Amino acid sequence: MIRRLHVDVRSSCSFLGTVLKYLSLTLFFPTGIALYYRESPVPFLVTLVVTVVVGVGLERLEAEPRLDHREAFLLVALTWFVVPFVGTVPYLVAGTGTVADPVNAFFESMSGFTTTGATVMGSISVETHSRSIMMWRQLTQWLGGMGILVLMVAILSELSVGGTQIIRQEAPGIKVEKLTPRIRETARALWLIYAWFTLAAVVVYYGLHLAGLAPNMTAYNAVAHGLTSLPTGGFSPEGRSVEAFEPIVQWAVMLFMIVAGTNFALYWYAWRGRPERLTENAEFRSYILVMGVIGGLISTLLFLGVGLATVPESVSTIPGSVERSLRHGFFQIIAIVTTTGYASMDFNAWSDTTQVILLFTMFLGGSAGSAAGSIKIIRWYVIQKSMRRELFRLVHPEAVRPVRMGTTGDVIDEETILGIFVFVAVFLTLFVISTVVLLVDAHRTPGLSLSALEAASAVIATLGNVGPGVGVVGPMNSYEPFSDAAKLYMIFLMWIGRLEILSVLVILTPTYWRS
Amino acid sequence: MIRRLHVDVRSSCSFLGTVLKYLSLTLFFPTGIALYYRESPVPFLVTLVVTVVVGVGLERLEAEPRLDHREAFLLVALTWFVVPFVGTVPYLVAGTGTVADPVNAFFESMSGFTTTGATVMGSISVETHSRSIMMWRQLTQWLGGMGILVLMVAILSELSVGGTQIIRQEAPGIKVEKLTPRIRETARALWLIYAWFTLAAVVVYYGLHLAGLAPNMTAYNAVAHGLTSLPTGGFSPEGRSVEAFEPIVQWAVMLFMIVAGTNFALYWYAWRGRPERLTENAEFRSYILVMGVIGGLISTLLFLGVGLATVPESVSTIPGSVERSLRHGFFQIIAIVTTTGYASMDFNAWSDTTQVILLFTMFLGGSAGSAAGSIKIIRWYVIQKSMRRELFRLVHPEAVRPVRMGTTGDVIDEETILGIFVFVAVFLTLFVISTVVLLVDAHRTPGLSLSALEAASAVIATLGNVGPGVGVVGPMNSYEPFSDAAKLYMIFLMWIGRLEILSVLVILTPTYWRS
Ligand SMILES: [K+]
Ligand SMILES: [K+]
Questions:
Q1: pLDDT at A200 over 50
Q2: Which positions, given as ranges, span the membrane (chains A, B) (predicted)?
C-alpha cells in the first residue's frame, strides 16, 4: 500500500489494541463479584475473550507504532468509541432489563466510560440486574475516569485543544520530550492518587455503616459508590441515588465530590510537600467560591419555600429547616458543578427558578485536570480575566497588558485565551443545535412530551457529561423514552463532549488527512 | 475647581446639551399632528420648553467642549439615559392609560429611543391614547434609530467597543482625524439614506392603500409604520401589530425590515456606484443565509403542523398552506433577526419547539452599521471563522494563519477577534444573571406567573433590543404585569444592550476615572 495519508492509522489502531488488552484485565473484578454472589460469570468471560482477541489483533497491526499529534487525535477518538462499544457485551450477554437492547446497551456503556451517568435502565436495582452487572456499570465509570485524567493532563493539553494547554502550567513538572513516555509518567502519578482517594471513599462510606450511622451503606454499596465518586460519574445501584442514604452519608459524598472535581495535579504537589499550591490555585479558589455562592442561593430559595414548585409530603419538611435547606441546596450544586450527577432529592419538585439556576450551573464544570466534564472553571476564570482586561484596554487603548493567573501571576498567552473562547463558542453552538434536534425528534416519538427546558437539560447533561437533567430526564427518571435516533445522537454528544469536542471535529476536517 | 479627573465631565454635558437642543426641534412634528387631529398640543409644548431650557443650560457649561475617547463614552451613556428620561414628559403630561405612571412612561420611552419596541401599554389604540401621543411613540424609535446609526458607525467603532472596530473596514471612506468632524460627516451621509428609505416605506405602504390592496393602511398608519420600520423599532399603533394588515402589506414590511437590518454603509457605496459591495459583503451574505435557513425551518414546521402548540380557529388554516406557512415563518424570523419585533401572528400559539428556535434566533441580531440590536451577524461570522482557523491550527500547530473576511480577504486583527469574543461572553453572562433576577423577582410579584422560557425571552428581548418575547411578554401582550423593580431592571438592560454593554461597563471601572 502506498502511504498517501499523513496520519498513521495503523499506529493509532495498534495503541488502541494495547488499551483493549489492558481493559481485559479489569474484567477479573466483575467476574470475581459474580462468583462471590453465585451469579453467572459468563457475560464477563465472553467480554474477556472479545477484548483479548480484538486487542491483540489490533496491536499486531504495527510492530513499532509511533504517536505523533495526528495519531494521538485519532487514538483518543477511537478509544472512547471502541471501548464503550466493547463495553456493551456484558449487558447484551446478560440480557436483563432495558439494557438488553443494543442501542440502550451502547447508551449505558458510553454513559459509563465517559463518566456521564445518564441512564436508560428502566428499573435500577440489583434484583432486575445482577449484582455483578451493576458492579460492571460502576466499574465502567471508574475506568473512564482513569482514562480522562490522562487524556486531559497528558494528551489534550499537549495537543492544545480548546485552551487545555493552560493545564501544563499546573501539571506535574515531569518534562519528557516524546509524547509516549510523558503519558506513561503522568499516568502513573495520577492513577496512584486516584486509587488512594477511591480507597478512602470506600473506607469512609463503609466506616459510617460499621459505626451504625448508615444501615444500608453495605460493603457492596460502599464499593459501588466509591467507584463512581472519584470519576465524577454518578451511577448508583440505588434507584433513588444518594437520597437512599442517611444525611451523614450525603455530607460525606459531598466531600468526595469536591475532592473529585479538583485538579489532581494539585494533589501531586501537596503529596510532594507543597500543599500551598492547592489553596493558592486560582481555579481551585474560583471552584470553591462558585459552589459557595450558587449553593447558598439555592439553599436560601429552598429555605424560603420559593425554590419548590409543589410541596408534596416528601419535601414539605425542607422550607424553614436550616440543615435540610443547606444539605439539599449544596448537595445538588456540588453534584452539578463537579458534573457528578448524584442527587440527594428529586429536584423535579423544585420550582422553575431553581431548575433554571441548576441548568445554567451545568455549563460551569469542575476543574481541569480532574475527571469532571462540561466547560470547566479554568476556562470561565480566563474569560472573566479577559473581560477585565478588555475594559482596561478601552480606557488605555495603547497599553499592552497580558492576562495573568491569580496569585501566581503567570502570563496566559493570547493563543490560549482565544482557544478557550473558541471552545466555549463551539460548545454553546452544539448545545443550541442539539436542543432543537431533540425537540424536533420528540414530535415524532410516541409517548414522549418534551418541554424546552427538558430538552435543553438533556443536551447539557450529556454534552457536559453531567448525567441527569430536569423533568423527564430528572435524577430519578431515565433516558429510556427517547427514540433510538435521539439516543444515538446523545451517545454522540457524550462522546464528543468528553473529548473536548475540538479533538473530534479536527478529524472531520479535510486538512487533517491531507497535507 | 481643581481638575483631578481625567474625564472632562463638563464637555460631555455640553455635547449632551446640543443633542437636547436639536431634539427640541423634532417636537414640532407631534405638535403638528395634534393640531391636525384637533388634539391637545400641550404635552409636546411642555416637552419643547423642557428640552430647550435643559439643553441650552447644559451646552453653556463649557464654551469649547472637547471630545476625546473618555468624554465620548460618557456622552453616549448620558445621551441614551437623559433623552429617554426627557422623552417621558409627553406621556406624563397627557396622562392617559398605563403610561401615565412614571416607571411605565420611562420604560416606554427607553424602549422607544433604544428601538426595542417592548411596551407597557395596557391598551394599544388611538382611542385610549391620542393620535399625537401614539405618533410621538413611533417618533422616539425613528429618532433613536438615527442616533444608533451614528453611534455604531462613527463612535463605538472608533472606540473599538466589543470588536465594533471591524465596522471601519466597511464604513464610508471618510477619513477625518478628529472625532467630532468625523461624526458630523458620517451622520450626514447615513441620515440621508435613512430618510430616503423611510420615505420609500411610507410611500409603498400608502401606495398599497391607494391601490385598494390595504384598506386599513391609512396615511396615519403608513407614516407610523414607516417611522418604526427603518430603525428596526417595531412599535405599531395597532394592538395586533402587523397581523392587522393584509398579507401583501406583511410581505412589504418584510422587505423593509431586511433593508433596515443591512449595513447602511453598503448603501452608501451602492449610491456612489459600487452596488457590488453589497452582494460581495460577507456579513450581508451570512445575514441573508441565516434568515433563509431558519425561516425555511420554521415554515416547514408550521406547514407540518408540529410548529403549533394548539390549533385554534385563528391558526388552523396555516398547516398545509404553503403561502401562509412561508409568510408567517419568514415574517417572524425576519422580525427577530433584524430585531424589529413586529409580528404577523401571535407566536404564543406556536409549540415549544418553534418558540425555542425563536428564542435562540434572538441572539443573532442584524448587521453592524444598522439600527438592529443583539449580538449581530458580523460577530457570529468572525466567531465561525475563528472556529475554522482553530481546527486548522490543531493540525498545523506551527502555522500562522490570520482570520480573513469572505470575498474581500481583509485580515481581521487578533485584538478585534478577542474583543468580539469578550463582547459575546459579557452579553451571555448578563443574560444568565438577568434571567435568574427576573424569575426570583416574579415570585414576589402578585399576579405574575413567569416560566423559565418567558423570563429568558424577556431578558433577551430587552437586552437585545428585540421587543417582544414569548408567553406573557409575547407580541400581543405587554410588560405591564412586572413589578416596578423588574421594569427598572429591564430599562437598564435596554439601555446597556443598546450601547453594546462594554461602553457602559467601562464607565463603572475605577481606572476610567483615575490615571
Ligand atoms: K457525571
Ligand atoms: K425592536
A1: yes
A2: 12-36, 42-61, 73-93, 142-167, 188-208, 248-268, 288-309, 329-345, 357-382, 417-440, 452-476, 488-513
